[in-house]
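I am writing to request your help with a piece of structural work I have in hand. A protein sequence and the structure tokens that stand for its backbone fold form the material at issue. Please examine both parts with care and let me know of anything in them that strikes you as inconsistent. The record follows directly beneath this note.
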Amino acid sequence: MPHQEQVMVHGNLCAPGPPNNAGYNSNPVPVIIQTESRDKWSKKMDFLLSVIGFAVDLGNVWRFPYICYQNGGGAFLIPYVLMAVFGGVPLFYMELALGQFHRTGAISIWKHICPIFKGIGFAICIIALYVSFYYNTIIAWALFYFYSSFSSTLPWTSCDNAWNTENCTNYFGKDNVTWTNYSRSPAEEFYTRNVLAVHESSGLGDVGYIRWQLMLCLFLIFTIVYFSLWKGVKTSGKVVWVTATLPYVVLLILMIRGATLPGAWKGVVFYLNPKWEKLKETSVWVDAAAQIFFSLGPGFGVLLALSSYNPFNNNCYRDAIVTSLVNCLTSFVSGFVIFTVLGYMAEQRNVNVEDVARDKGPSLLFITYPEAIANMVGSTFFAVIFFVMMITLGLDSTFGGLEAIITAVMDEYPDTLSHRRELFVLGLVVVCFLGSLSTLTNGGAYVVKLLEEFGVGSPIIAIVFLEATAVSWFYGINRFSNDIKSMLGYTPGLFWKVCWVAISPAFLAYIIISSLLNPQPLTLFDYEFPDWSITVGYIIGASSFMWIPIYMVYKLVWTPGSLKQRTLPDIHTDSMGLSPIP
């Protein structure tokens, strides 16, 4: 695309835009700089696989199946689909369109939308750092399991290992086994005592020492990440051909194997059996909204970054629909992979499925599923491919999260960093590795839980709420629609405009208010987080969000003109309706 000059905004805090379509011609010209020097995807599929790889992560495998059966089974699909159609997908589409039109990262994009909200970009980068501090540790756990799987007998099969206790109870292949409240399976003790070693920590007040085995695994993970990202989308776009497609091959193999296990049908019935009365509970709708939001991943800056390397006339609308459908269908299919195995375990224990489906979060992937695999024919093969799938699912999301930071910072400081990408990426990876060290301790699992709950949860939802509000109400929905028209040749329909202006922000506000009104106690492995740790959690959450009001105050003080001029958008435009009159 030919070079286009950048329009500079002077003396106003929001990019100009009239409240109606007056002043726009039928095919407005983009106002954001477009240079041939910016990286571009080598192929369209590189971009699509990168977006799918980011959106389809470990949460699709562990979070959706658990939330689905907990909230009414098949009945949960109704609120899930509604929240996706009216909330998740419109926000997903909005971010892809913003990134592709403005062709810049999460920080500098606000110069063109509404400069007073630029703090959102800094907040997004800080949250992405927090995610990298704990998410890659979970991948390191999977790598530890992957290494441990290369044995004729999987180490979490029996109770004869050095880390086992007298409470270890192995019920597979045995009759008349007594299972009590104190009983622990070999897989649970392998996870808690050999991988995490949480028994050597009394809690967050005494996390213990760094486990060198996990540190080595994390070092290998970050090494892969660095050499996948150091050259930009040219390299990461090639890596995702493996990391984004391999999980689907493994899911298919595991689903076929699970369907052939005795008792598998019990798990499927339990997974999908609709409990219509659940739809009357507010918590079910909140869980549906939160699940679709965190699954699609708007607000993390990743979609902005990845789409900014697209051609200007790329059909981002079609991309949004296709990748959203793939994401949601992956979550649904993952439920069959998980629950066929849970049905098998229930058959082996001679108990109901709900009695073996109590694990959630990482425990579902590191205790329940490995336990079932250990007692299958060909257990080593299935363990290896299962943990390969987990590693690749995690790596894709890490690629996206760190690319969001890289793109945002390099676009904000191009003169300093444009020719030093390799060094900047190396420095970022080192910072992420050092920031992860506390999660590698004996009590590291507690740190992971704290960061996941407070560093990402509510702050990212609040940030996306502000982002959607700024784009729809300050930048202007008509202006944004015309931006899309300049790329695609047609204006978004009324449905999308209504969602962006009202329904999607209401969807986000609903999640925020519900989480504030119904806070859940924070526990892990029977450890209840103390009050002081909750306070620390709120400080972690505030440390990212606070940059939004701080930058607003800075901008109000720094920008010349009257208070009205400094707080309201400048609606005076040139004949094209696109740039302010100096």
